[in-house]
Every structure is written in C-alpha cells, then in structure tokens.
Amino acid sequence: MPDLEVKLKMLKDMMAIRRFEDVIKRLYKEGLVEGAIHCYTGEEAVAVGVCAALRKDDYIFSTHRGHGHAIAKGCDLKRVFAELMGRSTGLSGGMGGSMHLFDLENGLMGGNGIVGGGIPLSLGTAYSAKYRGTDQVTVCFFSEGASNQGTFHEAINMASLWKLPLIFICENNLFAATTPSYKTLSNPDVAARAAGYSLPGVIADGNDVLDVYEECNTAVERARKGEGPTLLECKTYRVEGHCMVLKDLPQHRPKQEVEEWAKKDPIDVFEQKMIMMGEISNKSRIEIDQKINREFEEAIAFAKSSPFPDVQEFKKKVL
Fold it and tell me: Residue 241 is part of which domain span?
C-alpha cells in the first residue's frame, strides 16, 4: 500500500480534478471555453489510482474525457486551463482543446475525439519501449463503449502476442454517450474478454482509489518484468451527462441508481478511510483545499492573460 505522502497526493489530485470540472463548467457558461467539454466527475479514483502507480517517463493514452488523466499524470495546471481556453500557452498551443491534450514531457500521448482511437496507438509506445530495452510502461484509457470497437480486439491480441508492456484500462462508467452499458455489452464484465487473448483480466472498484492503485501496481510490475499486458476494468459511474454541448439531453438515469452511486463518491470514500486510519484531520483537509484554491487562482489568471494562437503561424503548420 502507498505511504501517507502518496495517499495525501492522491486525495489532493482527486479533489483538484473535481474542482477543475466544476470550474470548467462555469467558464464554459461564461463563454471562455468552447467546444465539446466532457467532464470526468465521479471517475477521479481511476485516473489517480492508475497514475500513482506510474513513473513520469511512462506513457498514457487518454480519451475525449481526459482532463482527469492529464491532471493525475502531472501536467501543468496552468497549461491545461490555457489549452481549454484556446490560448497559445496551452498544452497543444491552444489548437487542440479539451479532447486533444498532449504533453510529451509528462508522458501524455494525447486525448482522442474518436471513441477507442487511442487503443491501437498505444501499441506504438509499448513496442518502442520493448524494442529499446527500457522498462517503461504504457497505459491506455478507454471506456466500455470503446471496448466494442474492432480496434480493441486487434490491439489486445497483438499486445498479448508480443508480450508488450501495455496496460489496458477500461473505465466502465456504465454509459456510452446516453446509452447504458447493459444495452451494448453482452457480458457486463469487460475484463472477461481477456481470457480470449491469454492475458490477465482484472476488475477493480473504480470508486476506490486504493483498490485501483493496488491492481494497477500489480499490472505495472508484471509489465516491467516483461510478462506482457493486463486488461484492468475499473467499475465506476459517470455522474455528468455526456458533454456540455448535450447537457440538456435526457440521460434516462433511474433516480435510485444515481442515489446509490452518490453514496460511493470516490473522494468521500477515500477521505473516510483516511479519517478512520487517523491519517487526516479536518484541519489538514482544509489546508489541501486552500492549496488547490491558490493553484487554481494562479492557473486561471495565467490562462486568461495568455494570448490566442497566431492565425498565420497556424496556417504555416497545417498548410
């Protein structure tokens, strides 16, 4: 299990991701953020638990719902805000927006607007690490909806065949856009598909950051030893609608379902565990919150004061 310092960072990162999504929704309504904003609220334990088991030089491939992945992997909060505001100081120069966060320095190989688009791409860095003889690990995040894409089956077969240091993280949040998973999955456990490709298929409680960390850490150790990939399914719940553009679209979520998952909020669950272990007090919780407030104030001010990309420079790059 992680030590207290790591646990405190986990808590802070989850709180920061939650705060980020709340702030982004406000900035979107104010007209400071454009495009399709896909919030990660409720799924924080997956990104944080996984990235806590990784090194800075490990790679991750994100999705269209990738703000949490970027923050958990250590990307500069100022540059993340700047990217979503379309500023030149953003992670992708203000030209990628919410779905295309990219930060090579921290191993973030990009988000992807195509459902499951990052799955085949993740084979590249995994194969590269094996070819170069490093012990770097690649993690690919995707949803249960993306697991129905043909590229998922092709990629997992190749990764197993070549014993690549690749961990497939299925964030099963029970909804693909507005379609519940029971209407799209023949087996509710995506992890069961691993058996067909001769690799471990593991299920973690996606609302328990320690469970996610423990299972991912095991997969990372296996990958670093050259034993091949793992399919890790994290069962969680997408609290928000699909995206801000479709925010008023009916979600067809049963009231009882929403209430039951609210009782398993990942931040509340982790805080209660730390309180029971005597690892955190109300005072230290407030101090973490205050630190996040200061960081967010600085990051938002930085983004707002940054210039927009130069149109002529953009044309030179793409034409």
Answer: 4-318
